[in-house]
Every structure is written in structure tokens, then in C-alpha cells.
Write a structure and sequence with these properties.
six-stranded mixed sheet, globular, binds adenosine-5'-diphosphate, alpha+beta, single chain, binds magnesium ion, 3 domains, Ubiquitin-like (UB roll), about 50% helix
Length: about 700
Amino acid sequence: MTTKQIMETNDTSAEEALTALYGSDTFGIKTMEKYLSKSAFKKMLATVQRGGKLDMSIADEVAQAMKVWALSKGATHYTHWFQPLSDATAEKHDSFVEPDGKGGMICEFTGKNLIQAEPDASSFPSGGIRATFEARGYTAWDPTSPAFIKRTEHTATLCIPTAFCSYTGEALDKKTPLLRSMVAVSKHATRVLRCFGVEPSCVESNLGAEQEYFLIDRNLYLQRPDLIETGRTLFGCLPPKHQQMEDHYFGSIKERVLEFMNSVDHALWALGVPAKTRHNEVAPAQFEIAPLFEASNVAVDHNVMIMDILQRQALKFNLVCLLHEKPYACVNGSGKHNNWSLGTPELGSLFSPGKTPHSNLLFLTFLACVIQGVDKHADLLRASISKAGNDHRLGANEAPPAIISIFLGDQLTDIIEQIKAGGAKSSAAKTTMELGVDVLPTLPKDTTDRNRTSPFAFTGNKFEFRAVGSSQTCAWPMAVLNTIVAEALDEVATRLEPVVGKRNFNTVVSSMIKEMITKHDRIIFNGNGYSQEWIKEAERRGLPHLKTTPEALEVLSRPDTIKLMKKYNILSKAELLARKEVQAESYLKLIHIEAKTCLNMLQTIYLPAIAGQMTEICGTIAAIKAAGIKAGLKAAEDKANAVGKLYDELPAKVQALQAAIDKGCPVCMKEAMESARVTVDALEAIVDADLWPVPTYAQMLNIHSK
Ligand code: ADP
Ligand code: MG
């Protein structure tokens, strides 16, 4: 059923139609139950819901069922869909067609086709892991993320989420380390839970990723080579009215945008993506979509699908969706707030303070592990979100700085202070804490003192990692977060296991929590993360402040990082160094592309336009003179001089930019681009509007109805 048909359905069947739409294009649990034998379904369920190893003997049956289902959905092709080391997704389609030996064809899809493929794929970045002459790369089915149908108006393709690795088994993608980190954090969280007498069926790392984005009219977009080539504007003045009136955030959504959002939601629901929230964001033409949280790997796949659907649906409304972290200077950039938690089916989030002393002790143990993990590896967490685009955003308008800190809120911080003081009385929380004996005050899930300025905020029963960039996949930041917490949980389990069942268990836990918090509470900061004072204070506390991607990437090759990633089987040294190389290279390439685009626009767009303006004013001056009048001559000459003075600045700036490009130095290229921008933006303020060659910020940030 189409969206329109659903909307036109009479009241009683509308809900039915909507719920039937949900997941209709995915080979999810409901579909599997329908298409698989009872025993195969049970085995799939055990893997999908509890993360158990898949019994490969059912692969043929699953493949057959998937094929029948996909063909019924109109699919003609299938693809192993994966996430290489770029931020994109990859797919290579194969049709179901096999010759039947009699001049006809049959549709075939075997267990082998499902489980593994060898898509050559030699041109993906591998950071040197795989020389192109030994180009074998393998994709391997991830049964925990449901297969889905990718549609265009006339095509349907069965997409099978997969991991991508080299012939020698090294991970060449973003999904593999994430899956490995989920195993690690689950293993050690289970050990800790067991110490507390809890036997979970599984521990899952969960993610709800809020996605921010900008929309721009496609006709305007096509006139901005900088947006097309680099995803951000390299020039442009801020209009008089931008976001200062704070009237866009949560404002009434314009009709054209709402129609777009609605089509996005419906496309996502068909794909089983639980799209939940949509609203206007702070900057004009900026918006947000948030799905409900899911297991991290599924949420990561779904977020990538959200980015794809946003971009594809936008075109249908003659819009373009900008996912860049900073499309426009001086207004807010876009992030991807990663709401993360660990949970079990029985207990829910392990970051929910409980109702009994026992569960509170458990909560504080898990909380202490996050505090330790984030403090110990703040720089690695910073490195996990490094990308050229995010460098523009971090520390700029309403974005967290590149310093990682944790916001806990006053109440929880007060409790932490009491723990440090050894259970002293405190008036702020109005309770006395004696670990393991007293009950924590119930913490409101939506704390009133929500802090938007923190890169890593505790929000009631989860943490919100807000520094992730809008165009990045969440896979790597989530893999890092899972790993650093797994390490802390491992240490805790190792300390507690020997005292399980002993009378002093609670005392050991209490002193351990106290010790962990005392050692690591410098990472806690509840103040304004956007302020200059915080930067100084963070320095005083010795917290790392890695401002740019190249600085941050150095963390990846440090011995302690290599050791951590190896110990928890997330990445081998070669895999880790390969990632550093790919990221460093892509950073450099991006800056190069920006610099060349900037140069090209200066030479072929701005300089000719300014020459045109000069010709025009000089024509006016000549005409005034020829007419033999004085009035107006000074005004015309003043304007010619003002434009001419800035015009004169440009050749040297063009030369400097060219020299920086030739030198290949990213810092020089960035400086030269910024310097050219200052002159061009000053010109934009005085050149005739009808002679200005590209759409302005005022035009681009205003989405009209048509
Ligand atoms: P905000 O008010 O921060 O903008 P949103 O409602 O936009 O919040 O998004 C909150 C996200 O957090 C949603 O994706 C939601 O499903 C997710 N979330 C809620 N509880 C948890 C949890 N326990 N673990 C992980 N994510 C969660
Ligand atoms: Mg939100």
C-alpha cells in the first residue's frame, strides 16, 4: 500500500494498514516465521535475539525462503550490502538468474550465496592491508541485521547486511569491529552481573541515533559548486536574520518539508526502521529525525539507511539533503547524538538506578565503569569522531568542544561526591548514602537540568554521545565506546569474582566504586561546555583537547590503543593502523578537494562577476561624466573604489591558495581558503545583488513552499 492509499483508508483499517507497512520490506522475525520451517525459525531466532552463533546447516533453507520472499516483493537482484572504510555503503548486484540448461532460466539463491561472497572490491580503501594485486575481499552475512528490499520506482533489490574482510581475515569494514566490541562488552558485563547474582539471557549494547540534517532547494544547490563538491559552503555571508530569534527550533514545520518528512517516515517504516521523532532544529533549514533505539549494529545499519532515504526522498521534493557537519559557517552544524546504553531483556537499561540497595550498587558499578572508561580513553573517544567536517563543528556554534567530558547532573554528581567522602551526609540530594545499604533517590529519567553543551551526557538511563558528526556512521564511535567500557567491566569482574558469596562483598564493591570515582572524576563536568573558561579548566584538569583530525588520529597508533584493541579482539595492530591511514588519507584528500573547489570558484565565478561589477560602475561613471553632471559621480566612484580595493586583494590570495595546493599542506590550504573567503564575503556585502553569481545564505537557508 502506498502512503497516499493508507491515508485514504477508512478509519478502522488505517491502523492495520500502517502496522502492515512496518517492516514489510524486511526479512525480519515476522517474515521468517512465515517462510521458514519451525526448527530453522527457532535457530534463526536464537541468533537474532540472543546473539548465539548461527547453525550454518540452515543456510540453504534460509536462502530459499529469502529468495521466495524477495521475488514476491519484485526483487530481481540481490546484493551483499556492507560498510567499507569510507563513510558510504557498498553494494554489487547479482541477479537471481541462472540458466536452466534448456535455453531458459531459473531463479536461484543458495546458502552459499547468502553466507559469503567475493566481490573483488579491490578499489576500496584498505589502508595497505590488501594490495590490489591480491584483491580478494570477502563479505560475510550478518544474520543479526535483517535483510531488506531497496526500492526505486522501477527496481527492487534484496540487500543482505554483511561484514567485509580480506582474504587473510582482516576486517576491511566498519561493522566487524562493532560486532566484536558488542561481544566484548556483553561478555564482561555478563561477568559483572553474575557477581551480583544476576544471570542475564544476554547483554546488549543499544543505540538510538538522532540524525540532524539541512535541506536546500535543489535549484539553488545546483548553483553552488562548493556544496556539490564538498558538501559545505566555502563562501557566503551570514544574513541579517539567521538563528538568533530562535524561532526555527521546534517551529511549525513548513508544508513542503513536512511532506518530505512524511515520505521519509513511510519509506523507513517499510524497511523496519522505527522512525519516531521529527522536528525543526535550531538553524534555519535544519531538521532532525530520530528512530527508537535498537541493538547497536542494527541501529548503525538503520542509521545508514536513514541517511540514504533522506537523500533519495529529498530529490522527489526538488530538495537536497545536506548531511555535512557544517554546511554553513556561523550557524549551527549538524551532529548525530548517539544515545547509548547497556541492557538486558530482564532488567532493561543497566544505567537505570534501581529501587533496592542491591540494584543501586549494580547501577553505581556500571556508572563507575563508564566514568573510568571515558576518562582513561577520552582521547580515543575523540579520535573516533574525527573527520574534516566535524572539525568545523566541534567547538563552534552550539556544538560540544573537542574536549571529552561527562555530564552527570547535579543529583548524581552529589551522590558521587558523597561516595568520595565515604558516605557523608549531603543536603543537595537530601539523602544519606551508605553504599549497599541505602536506596538511591529516584533519579528522574528526563532530568530537568539537561545539558546541551556536554559531549557525553547522562540522560536518566542512558548516555548521549553528542560529538559524533552528522555524516559519519556511528559504527566506529560505538565500537570504541563499547570497548573502553568492556575494559573497565573486565577489571571490575576480575576484582569481584573472588569475593562473590563472601560476607564482605558489598564492602569490596563500595570501596572499589569509591576508588574508581576518586581516580577518574576529573572527567565529570556539569557546567557550560561551550564556554572559554571550560577550555582553561579542562587544561588544568589535564583532559586532552585535540582540536583537529590529524592530532586526534595520532591516538590510534599509540601503544596503549593498540594493546586495548588487541586485548578485546576488536582490531589487530594491522587493522587499527590501516584505519588510521585511511582516515588520514581521506582527510587530506578532502581538504585538497575543498582547496581546488575554492580556487576554481575564485577564478571562474567570483573574479569574473567582480570584473562585471567594475565594468558596470565604470560605465555609470563614464555616463555621468559624459552627461556633464557632477551629482552622483562621487557615489559611483566611491563604490568603484570600494569594490576595486577588495578586487585588488584577490590575485595575491588566489596565488597563495595555488601555492598551498602545490605544497599539499592542509594547514596552509585551510588558511588560504579562509583568507580568500574574507575578501569574497566582504564583496558579497557590497556588490549588486543581481550581479552576485551564486545563491546567498539568505536564499539557501530559506525553504520556500515550492
Ligand atoms: P532528545 O530529547 O535528546 O532530542 P530524542 O527523543 O530525539 O531525544 O531521542 C532520544 C533517543 O534515545 C531515541 O532514539 C530513544 O529511543 C533513545 N533511547 C531511549 N532510551 C534508551 C536506552 N535505554 N538506550 C539507548 N537509547 C535510548
Ligand atoms: Mg532529539
